[in-house]
Fold this sequence. Notes:
By secondary structure, the chain is an alpha+beta fold. It folds into 2 domains: about 1-135 and about 205-260, no CATH class; about 135-200. It contains 7 helices and 10 strands. Strands 1, 2, 3, 4, 5, 6, 7, 8, 9 and 10 form a 10-stranded mixed β-sheet that branches. Helix 1 (about 30-45) packs antiparallel against helix 2 (about 50-60), helix 3 packs antiparallel against helix 4 and helix 3 crosses helix 6 (about 205-215). The protein is elongated and about 90 Å long. Keywords: Membrane, Transmembrane, Transmembrane helix.
Amino acid sequence: MLTHPTAEYHGRQLFLVEGTLSELQMAATKTELLNKLASRLRHHGANADPSLAARHQALAEETCLFEFDDHHTHIFAAQLDGLTLYGMFDNANQLADGDVLRAVVARSGDLHYVHSVIRSADDLMLLPYGVYAGEQALVRSNRRAMWALIVGVWAVFEVALLVSMYAEGYAISATQFIAVSIMLLAMCAALGRLGHGSPYQIMPGGELAQAIFTVYGFPLPHDFNAHQGIALFPGRSSPFYETNAQVALARHRTRFRLGA
């Protein structure tokens, strides 16, 4: 029997479930989702499945779901492999009953919270907002962004200095220009060195992403960056960009020279 790895995250065990999605309920907020479940309860009346009432009660008491003030996401509840799941992703509205999924979940009370899913049909991979890279991959990604910012700031200062000196009528010798450039570059390098310190490397998201990739069985999960697999999916009403798990995994294997 094939067993999948598990991972620990904030005291909870993350593990993999596979199956066909059913009884999917989707909403923009937790309140709306609860109202949908309550409406189903009222519609079925005395004939309602007892598990539906239990699901509504458990979801109402759940504290893992939260709403972003400035970021649109989708909250859902569903059944997968006999388990009641709930979660929230940017493009969760692209899921549908009948989808065959692999899901990384953690038990939360009487329910299971979904941390990530991969749809078998097209390898669509959904991850939490801001979670996309293992700890080492996140450090490298942040460093690249930091250095890009530093170089950009340095270039702006250089241009501003040249314009200012020219406007004041100062003659700029090659020696002066090189000296000032080196000084500015040294200041930027000092800022960059601070960015390589441990406080900068402790970024939220890396630990969770690494746990998710471990459960999926990806090699070198601490170095895995899901953004390598960003692809355009057709979508129900319009195309959207999201991670293609197979593309990301193939590029990850190529980068680190891993076998198939």
